[in-house]
Design brief:
alpha/beta, nucleic acid binding, exonuclease, 4 domains, single chain, OB fold (Dihydrolipoamide Acetyltransferase, E2P), 12 helices, 47% helix, five-stranded parallel beta sheet, five-stranded mixed β-barrel, 466 residues, elongated, Exonuc_VII_lsu_C, OB-fold_nuc-bd_dom, Exodeoxyribonuclease 7 large subunit, Rossmann fold
């Protein structure tokens, strides 16, 4: 019997015996096996997974009844988008070989992919599980955003809608905000390293208060750089707060979980960063509007009050009130004088009576006491009269000052005038007059009659003539 290796396992008497060395035999076996099984697709379950310090991966691939050793060298292992682990059901492409030192058959893997769930999703779950276990997602380690940032550093592509949208929103809400761009790839194998370099750059420069990592939406494969463990650890190591603005509303990446704040879109990131500044600007605008309205209302109220006080009827009421108060002062003054006079008369009569008694009784001491009491009483009465008269006169002067201040004559003395029509009605608007009409103008001293030749309306600084 002759095998595919090109030699016979049976010795015949006519053939010369050949003796093989072990290394020769295993070497020949390897060549024959690799030539016969050079491009294989093999399905199985990973077990006994052993990553080596060299970067090579070693594991067994098994099914229900058998297993084979597998080696994946460092170059091919570096292209994997997930971390192999025991229990994974995978599809392997490679070749069958012989490990000569042990004489064992093994598979040299060129490509490995997960059966069922995609490798990208698996890699996402693996990295997420690992970093969550390390506490990198914990809320306690997240840094707060500055309330009023002066400068923002954004790491993204220099072209495209992302940077334009961010600048438009940030500029509209906070015109004084400075934005520094670190241009970086946001897709492809080199993207994670470039974004991480941008984060490190802004931390070294110390020119910005917060960092934004941004890109547009995309598929799971497009967002692969932002699911890398390398970039996630760069975000976690940042001394400055990092805002992730990756993808759209429904896209979540590992960078979102590690970042200090996640924004659903780049535009939303700009709104979140400028939120406190924008709120203060809105409050200032509202307060300014309220002050303007209050001042306008106060002016309208003052004009209405002036108009009421300037009316002839109002002036007449004030004059009448002042006259009544003057009459009351005169009455009180008369009563005070009468009361003092009566008291003095009674006191004089009492003095005369006491004098007569003193004369009759010849009591000089009593006379002296009576004189002293009389003088005291007269002084008190006089003081009461003066005080009462002073109070009433002060009240009268106060009323006079109020009347003068409120009187249209006081206003007219400052250069203003009151204009009445032929019926005596006060005019407040040029629209109440018409050409040819006779008007009476009341001045501080005297009045003037005039005929209307032309009227004009002023509105917002413009004149409308009739």
């Amino acid at each position: 019997m002759v095998s595919q290796l090109g030699f016979s396992f049976e010795e015949t008497k006519t053939q010369q015996r050949r003796v093989w060395k072990i290394s020769e035999l295993t070497g020949q076996l390897r060549l024959e096996v690799e030539r016969s099984f050079s491009d294989l697709w093999i399905e199985g379950e990973i077990c006994d997974f052993r990553p080596a310090a060299s970067g090579h991966l070693y594991f067994n691939l098994k099914d229900e009844s058998a297993q084979l050793s597998v080696v994946m060298f460092r170059r091919q292992a570096g292209l994997l988008r997930f971390r192999p682990e025991d229990g994974l059901h995978v599809l392997l492409r490679g070749k069958l070989s012989v490990y000569e030192q042990r004489g064992s058959v093994q598979i040299v893997a060129e490509h490995l992919e997960v059966m069922g769930a995609g490798s990208l999703q698996l890699a996402f779950e693996q990295v997420k599980r690992q970093l969550q276990h390390e506490g990198l997602f914990d809320a306690e380690r997240k840094k707060p955003l500055p309330a009023f940032p002066r400068c923002v550093g954004i790491v993204t592509s220099p072209s495209g809608a992302v940077i334009r949208d961010f600048l438009n929103v940030a500029g509209r809400r906070h015109s004084a905000l400075q934005v520094l761009l670190y241009p970086a790839l946001v897709q492809g194998d080199a993207a994670a390293a470039e974004v991480a370099a941008g984060i490190a750059f802004f931390n070294r420069s110390q020119e910005v208060d917060v960092i934004v990592v941004a890109r547009g939406g995309g598929s799971l494969e497009d967002l692969t750089p932002f699911n890398s463990e390398f970039l996630a650890r760069a975000i976690a190591a940042s001394d400055l707060p990092v805002v992730s603005a990756i993808g759209h509303e429904t896209d979540f990446t590992i960078a979102d979980f590690v970042a200090d704040l996640r924004a659903p879109t780049p535009s939303a990131a700009a709104e979140l960063i400028t939120g406190a500044q924008h709120k203060i600007e809105e409050q200032v605008e509202q307060l300014s509007l309220r002050i303007h309205r209050a001042a306008r209302y106060a002016l309208i109220q003052a004009r209405e009050r002036f108009a009421r006080l300037s009316a002839p009827a109002a002036f007449a009421r004030l004059q009448d009130g002042l006259n009544r108060r003057q009459q009351r002062v005169d009455e009180l003054s008369y009563r005070a004088e009468t009361l003092v006079g009566r008291q003095l008369q009674r006191a004089s009569q009492r003095v005369q009576q006491l004098s007569s008694e003193l004369i009759r009784h010849d009591v000089s001491h009593r006379l002296k006491l009576a004189d002293e009491r009389l003088e005291s009483l007269a002084g008190r009465l006089l003081h009461a009269q003066v005080a009462t008269d002073a109070r009433h006169r002060a009240r009268l002067k106060s009323l006079e000052r109020n009347l003068v201040a409120l009187s249209p004559l006081g206003v007219l003395s400052r250069g203003y005038a009151l204009v009445y029509d032929e019926n005596g009605a006060l005019l407040r608007d040029a629209a109440q007059a018409h050409p040819g009409q006779i008007l009476k103008t009341r001045l501080a001293r005297g009045s003037v009659e005039s005929r209307v030749t032309q009227t004009s309306q002023e509105s917002n600084g413009e004149q409308n003539k009739e």
